[in-house]
Design a protein that fits this description.
By secondary structure, this protein is mostly helical. The chain contains ten helices and no strands.
């Protein structure tokens, strides 16, 4: 009897492992093919998989892919936004993991990973997956003790989320540009990473399209960690 039970347990474990491997392959195969031309088909494919069980796999895949190719950030953010309408736990997990990734990169002075992380978070804000409060907290942290690198990250972040902030919470955007002007005026940095074009951009945000967000048809739809309170990032749908 004990031998039979052990045998059934082993068989069940093997079955679960095989099921997990198949789910991983399916999510990876779909996610790796995502682009602006086939995103609707990819979303349908992903909804056909067990995304509740594979939510960690999907988030890990998209974060890795986006950090390697930031030009696809808008596509990945749009994909998350549509999935988030049906499975908000995935949007919450994605934002939480990106915040953790940003915090670790910030501690290690990894500018490249900081920039890719805030770019993804910016587009998730544009898509209303991440709350605009998160954008203000990120900017406040980076400008608390400005350096060349931290200001460069803020500039990259503002280029992606500036138009959204200007239309939703203009006071946050004004804070950012006031900080930029102060840094330039006091000549605190060893080299200028805030360009005049960016300051000009502030005056034209209301009429120019700065963020490169992707619109989808409606029917397919934490000292650092403690500073970034995860439960305030997501929007309650």
């Amino acid at each position: 009897m004990m031998a039979d039970a052990a045998s059934r347990g082993d068989a069940k474990e093997v079955q679960q492992r095989e099921s997990w491997d198949q789910l991983k392959k399916r999510i990876n195969a779909s996610g790796n093919r995502a682009n602006i031309g086939n995103i609707k088909d990819i979303i349908v494919e992903l909804f056909g998989a067990n995304l509740v069980r594979g939510r960690g796999l999907l988030c890990r895949l998209l974060m890795r892919a986006q950090s390697q190719s930031t030009s696809f950030t808008a596509v990945y953010a749009a994909l998350v936004a549509v999935i988030n309408t049906k499975l908000p736990l995935i949007g919450e997990l994605m934002v939480t993991r990106l915040v953790l990734q940003f915090c670790r990169a910030f501690k290690r002075d990894d500018k490249g990973l900081c920039i890719s992380s805030v770019m993804f978070l910016a587009h998730l804000s544009n898509q209303r997956v991440a709350h605009e409060v998160l954008a203000f907290q990120i900017v406040s942290l980076l400008l608390e003790t400005p350096t060349d690198d931290s200001v460069e990250v803020v500039v990259a972040f503002t280029r992606e989320v500036g138009a959204f902030l200007g239309s939703i919470v203009p006071r946050v955007l004004n804070y950012v540009f006031d900080a930029f002007r102060s840094i330039l005026h006091e000549d605190r940095l060893t080299h200028i990473v805030i360009t005049r074009d960016l300051l000009v951009m502030h005056a034209t945000l209301s009429t120019e399209k700065i963020m490169r967000d992707l619109k989808i048809d409606g029917d397919l739809e934490r000292r650092y960690e403690s500073r970034l309170r995860y439960d305030s990032y997501k929007r309650v749908r």
